[in-house]
């Protein structure tokens, strides 16, 4: 697949507005660590123990993968990882859910509201959206980008996110479409504290963003309203490979309230980080857990220390520099099942802007991110959240 351009745009978002326990505010439970590479092929097996569906969600396992169907108001079928990573990579082969008002999402998220994502609107299958948030901060909305893709609703594509101390890189079919460095994040946020750097859980799913009962901004962004009679609308996940670059980690604990990478304490004690129902025939494809006489430590997970994996892309391609007019767009802010530790939420703010595509080179640090974004029109966020609660409970 040829990726010819990157479109950066101003995005208004809620991101994660709630967490059951924010480690920046109080002492919270530690997060179970993956510490290895885990792969699961949904065309060969069912019910991954590391990526189970949320308890209240019905999913269908078919020959082409696991189907997550949006059929009615409030539907948000989601696979949620039971393990966390600190630095790592996700490869997911999937088809997005088609249809106006249907949104598919792939999200990295942490307890202190760091977030990295891919997102797709069902009626716009020729583009994928990338975004990130730090510590739940949505004071600015200039971090989103769109990337061309060949009919994401009809074709399976491999979407990857590679996250280290040094950079976050988004890939489509092993081609790098965007790279973000801490320095670029500091420019975008006007702070060096908002580059994602805390243990992440992974969530993949679809939801009914364009339901007529949702806020106008949500419906507009998702190209709704939804015509449920044309459904159900299925997101299909064929396979998942998740690598934790903190090799051997069994548990992640916040050492203080800074939310910095170095503050995270990593345990390699095998007795820690256990989750329920971990017995399975599906086993990690590679890597041996690191052993150490010291059971708790702080591991550096820089680019140079990443585990070598067979699915690592070998090259990147250049993107043409172009200017695009961006239609009103909103990204982020997910319902509880996808947004994870955040409560049910929605997208109630819209924005528009003109963006300049960045030139992509083989050096991750050369991606250009704009220093400013166009003005953002705000609406009452409290009304948005209240509306979503009402929608999900009705």
TrEMBL record:
One of its GO terms (cellular component) is fungal-type cell wall. The keyword Transcription regulation does not apply. Its main location: other. One of its GO terms (biological process) is fungal-type cell wall organization. Residues 281-303, 361-375 have a biased composition (Low complexity). Residues 15-230 form the GH16 domain. One of its GO terms (molecular function) is glycosyltransferase activity. Coiled coil: none annotated. It is a lipid-anchor; GPI-anchor. Belongs to the glycosyl hydrolase 16 family. CRH1 subfamily. This is Crh-like protein. The lineage of its organism: Eukaryota, Fungi, Dikarya, Ascomycota, Pezizomycotina.
């Amino acid at each position: 697949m040829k990726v010819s351009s990157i479109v950066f745009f101003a995005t208004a978002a809620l991101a994660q507005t709630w967490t059951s326990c924010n480690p920046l505010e109080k002492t919270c439970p530690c997060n179970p660590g993956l510490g290895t590479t885990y792969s699961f092929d949904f065309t060969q097996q069912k019910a991954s123990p590391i990526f189970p569906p949320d308890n209240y969600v019905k999913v269908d396992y078919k020959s082409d993968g696991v189907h997550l169907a949006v059929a009615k108001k409030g539907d948000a079928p989601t696979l949620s990882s039971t393990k966390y990573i600190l630095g790592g990579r996700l490869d997911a082969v999937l088809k997005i859910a088609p249809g106006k008002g249907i949104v598919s999402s792939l999200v990295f998220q942490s307890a202190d509201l760091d977030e990295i994502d891919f997102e797709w609107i069902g009626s716009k299958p020729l583009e994928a959206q990338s975004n990130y948030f730090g510590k739940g901060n949505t004071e600015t909305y200039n971090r989103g980008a769109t990337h061309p893709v060949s009919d994401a609703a009809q074709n399976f594509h491999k979407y990857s996110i590679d996250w280290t101390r040094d950079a976050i890189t988004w890939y489509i079919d092993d081609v790098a479409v965007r790279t973000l460095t801490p320095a670029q994040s500091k420019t975008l946020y006007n702070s060096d504290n908002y580059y994602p750097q805390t243990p992440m859980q992974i969530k993949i799913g679809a939801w009914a963003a364009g339901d007529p009962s949702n806020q106008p901004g949500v419906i507009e962004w998702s190209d709704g309203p939804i015509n449920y009679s044309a459904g159900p609308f299925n997101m299909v996940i064929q396979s998942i490979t998740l690598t934790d670059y903190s090799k051997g980690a069994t548990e992640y604990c916040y050492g203080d309230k800074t939310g910095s990478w170095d503050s995270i304490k990593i345990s390699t004690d095998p007795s820690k980080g256990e989750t329920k129902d971990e017995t399975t025939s599906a086993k990690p494809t590679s890597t041996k857990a690191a052993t150490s006489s010291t059971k708790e430590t702080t591991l550096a997970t820089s680019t140079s220390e990443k585990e070598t994996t067979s699915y690592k892309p070998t090259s990147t391609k250049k993107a043409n520099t172009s200017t695009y007019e961006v239609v009103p767009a909103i990204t982020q802010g997910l319902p509880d099942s996808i947004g994870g530790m955040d409560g049910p939420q929605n997208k109630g703010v819209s924005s528009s802007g003109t963006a300049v595509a960045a030139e992509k080179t083989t050096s991750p640090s050369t991606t250009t991110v704009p220093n400013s974004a166009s003005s953002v029109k705000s609406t009452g966020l409290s009304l948005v959240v209240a509306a979503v609660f009402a929608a999900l409970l009705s």
